[in-house]
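Summary of Year 1 activities. Much of the first year was spent building the evaluation harness for sequence design. The harness presents a backbone, in tokenized form, and records the residue chosen at every position. We chose the following record to illustrate the format because it has been used consistently in internal testing since the harness was completed.
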């Protein structure tokens, strides 16, 4: 079968690779799930892997199959797979696999303390930009049919879910803390999905981003009943004065100096969650006394958050379902840039690196024939008189 792969360490090495089709029996103890890939989203991580900034091949391989934002349908399940995962079920696979630390051993590999982490499509494990993949049932998340169009957004959603779930978990220390006002920094895919996840929890959200409104992303933010603020017009500190105090701030811009502006603008007893994986070596001058004093006198928290736990995938599915009910059509609008087929990987890369207006670039790996069939059935049921 075909797959999109890179030679890790070699810049711009993305290519089509012919690899053997995986089999259910590749996974021991009847726990294998064979999945036909329908759609795979790409993001900055894929761009940086192709630039050879990071990413390693699995041991014994000279290439790494990329892609970590998946959506597919089960074609075959081993004898020990739970019945919630049967052929035809729409599924998303999680990304990180356990290493060796205590956290990995209790199923929280997103919290690993190991130096090496194993992530499908990113580090030492092949990803999902292929016709099929096989995986242990414990890493497969079922989705309802209603998410057959937008389910490819689950993995990026889980990044926001973990941020919020961690914030809630940390703030239990305050007994009565309930976030009322939030700031989301950045209006890329994660910023948009974080705003959504906060809005379905009825939090008042101010999303701050560079570009001046109106444009597609600011419209999308406002469609969620959130406020869009351009930092060109209103700096974070001023926005916090006007629209805060912010109980929770999520940083998802990729521009690390903003972390310290955000820290300065966080409300008392607030929590700032950092989500940007900043690979560079930028430095910044900061108001250290002011930030430090604010944190001490205000009992504030700053926490980093990477990847997502199984629970974050579960809450992510719940939020996508809520989103389709409360904001119908909104998630679809994030799927701005479809690419047809694995063989179009060059176009995929071009859109990913050059199209600044794209929200989500994703590959339509295969047509969803089941969805068509299901839609067809529904159509017939309506057309046939009782
Ligand atoms: C992925 C995460 C991953 C992180 C670090 C992100 O792009 O969505 O699942 O943990 O990169 O590799
Ligand atoms: Zn990602």
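For this record, the design step produced the sequence shown next.
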């Amino acid at each position: 079968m075909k797959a999109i792969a890179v030679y890790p360490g070699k810049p711009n090495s993305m290519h089509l690779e012919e690899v053997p089709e995986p089999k259910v029996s590749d996974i021991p103890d009847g726990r294998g799930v064979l999945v036909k890939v329908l759609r795979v989203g790409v993001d900055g991580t894929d761009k940086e892997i192709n630039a050879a900034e990071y990413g390693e091949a699995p041991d014994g391989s000279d290439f790494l199959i990329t892609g970590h934002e998946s959506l597919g349908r089960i074609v075959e399940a081993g004898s020990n797979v739970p019945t919630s995962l049967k052929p035809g079920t729409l599924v998303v696979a999680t990304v990180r696999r356990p290493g060796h630390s205590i956290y990995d051993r209790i199923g929280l590999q997103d919290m690993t303390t190991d130096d090496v982490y194993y992530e499908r499509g990113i580090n030492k494990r092949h990803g999902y930009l292929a016709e099929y993949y096989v995986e242990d049932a414990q890493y497969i998340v079922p989705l309802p049919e209603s998410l057959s169009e937008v389910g490819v957004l689950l993995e990026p959603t889980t990044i926001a879910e973990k941020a919020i779930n961690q914030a809630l978990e940390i703030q239990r220390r305050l007994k009565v803390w309930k976030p009322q006002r939030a700031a989301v920094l950045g209006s890329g895919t994660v910023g948009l999905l974080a705003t959504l996840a906060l809005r379905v929890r009825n939090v008042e959200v101010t999303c701050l981003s560079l570009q001046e409104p109106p444009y597609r992303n600011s419209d999308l933010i406002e469609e969620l009943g959130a406020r869009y603020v351009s930092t060109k017009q209103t700096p974070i500190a001023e926005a916090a004065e006007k629209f805060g105090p912010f109980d929770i701030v999520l940083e998802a811009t990729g521009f690390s100096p903003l972390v310290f502006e955000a820290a300065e603008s966080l409300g008392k007893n607030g929590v700032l969650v950092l989500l940007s994986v900043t690979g560079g070596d930028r430095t910044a001058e900061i108001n250290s006394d002011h930030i430090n004093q604010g944190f001490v006198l205000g009992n504030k928290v700053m926490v980093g958050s990477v990847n997502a736990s199984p629970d974050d995938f579960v809450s992510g599915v719940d939020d996508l379902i809520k989103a389709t009910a409360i904001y119908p059509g909104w998630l679809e609008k994030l799927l701005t840039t479809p690419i047809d087929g694995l063989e179009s990987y060059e176009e995929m890369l071009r859109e990913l690196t050059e199209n600044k207006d794209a929200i989500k670039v994703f590959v339509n790996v295969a047509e969803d024939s089941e969805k068509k069939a299901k839609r067809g059935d529904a159509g017939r049921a309506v057309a046939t008189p009782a």
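The chain is about 30% helix and 25% strand. Quantitative recovery figures across the full test set are reported in Table 2.
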